[in-house]
UniProtKB/TrEMBL annotation:
Organism listed in the record: Coraliomargarita algicola
Gene3D superfamilies membership: P-loop containing nucleotide triphosphate hydrolases
UniProt xrefs under InterPro entries: Depp_CoAkinase, P-loop_NTPase
GO molecular function, one term: dephospho-CoA kinase activity
Chain's gene name: coaE
PANTHER family (alphabetical): BIFUNCTIONAL COENZYME A SYNTHASE-RELATED (PTHR10695:SF46), DEPHOSPHO-COA KINASE-RELATED (PTHR10695)
Annotated protein name in UniProt: Dephospho-CoA kinase
Enzyme Commission identifier(s): 2.7.1.24
Keyword terms: ATP-binding, Coenzyme A biosynthesis, Cytoplasm, Kinase, Nucleotide-binding, Transferase
Catalytic activity: 3'-dephospho-CoA + ATP = ADP + CoA + H(+)
Chief place of localization: cytoplasm
Length: 192
């Protein structure tokens, strides 16, 4: 079973991934794979340095905030970064799944529908939170309102993701509420 998980920025994707993992699922988070590539992949770092120089490095490591400032307001720059990273991210999760194709896999992909990857999965799940709730949670994590808005503008509207997904999880309330729905969904998938 292969499930693709998506949702808007800060809607709770990573939290849902953690709940599936606790339930014994194998999980992959695209955002975490990207962070790993930026932190450790020499070729990716060489490409970033060739494009933006030392301005996107801090003490030898990629400065993600500096990269974000360059790409989220510049469509061409974002396209370039996506072309560099997306094939590597996709190869990462496809290779992992190939090694245990019969296992239950949950793959978190923020741009699941934007990049038309949904056909690669048996089921899709969207986790959704209202914009004001997202803002409070993301500001608490150090993002500014402008940074959140810029990322959101680069994504399909959340309502459309919700309509396209096979299952919806509402993360408008407490963590307990989120956990109850996710547990119920995991049971439903297991017995389907
Ligand atoms: C620009 C980068 C360095 C900023 O890193 P940062 O740690 O601040 O953000 P993080 O990676 O945790 O992403 C946070 C959220 O931003 C949104 N986001 C990230 N990349 C994109 C994108 N290409 N388009 C739209 N939204 C995006 C997602 O909702 C994501 O969950 C990083 O997001 C990046 O390299 N993005 C390009 C690769 C990509 O498309 N990743 C997302 C799916 S594979
Ligand atoms: N129901 C909730 N109640 C309180 N805090 C929550 C709840 N759900 C998520 N959070 C917190 O909100 C923040 C965003 O959640 P999470 O990281 O799971 O979202 P995400 O969709 O993966 O975010 P991103 O788009 O940045 O990758 C985190 O700090 C998380 O701990």
């Amino acid at each position: 079973m292969k499930v693709g998980l998506t949702g808007g920025i800060g809607c709770g994707k990573s939290t849902v991934v953690g709940l599936f993992r606790e339930a014994g699922w194998r999980t992959i988070e695209s955002d975490a794979v990207v962070r790993e590539l930026l932190a450790t992949d020499a070729e990716v770092q060489t490409q970033l340095r060739a494009r933006w120089g030392d301005a996107v490095f801090s003490e030898g490591a990629v400065d993600r905030r500096a990269v974000a400032a360059r790409v989220f307001g510049d469509e061409e720059a974002l396209k370039w970064l996506e072309a560099l990273l997306h094939p590597l991210v996709r190869a990462h999760w496809q290779t992992a799944i190939e090694q245990a194709p019969e296992a239950c896999w949950l793959v978190e992909i923020p741009l699941l529908f934007e990049k038309r990857l949904e056909t690669l999965f048996d089921l899709t799940v969207c986790v959704a939170s209202p914009p004001d709730v997202v803002k409070d949670r993301m500001v608490a994590r150090g993002y500014t309102g402008a940074e959140i808005a810029q990322r959101r503008e680069r994504q399909m509207p959340l309502e459309e993701k919700m309509q396209r997904a096979d299952h919806l999880i509402s993360n408008a309330g407490s963590l307990e509420f989120l956990k109850r729905q996710t547990t119920r969904l995991i049971e439903q998938i297991a017995t389907a």
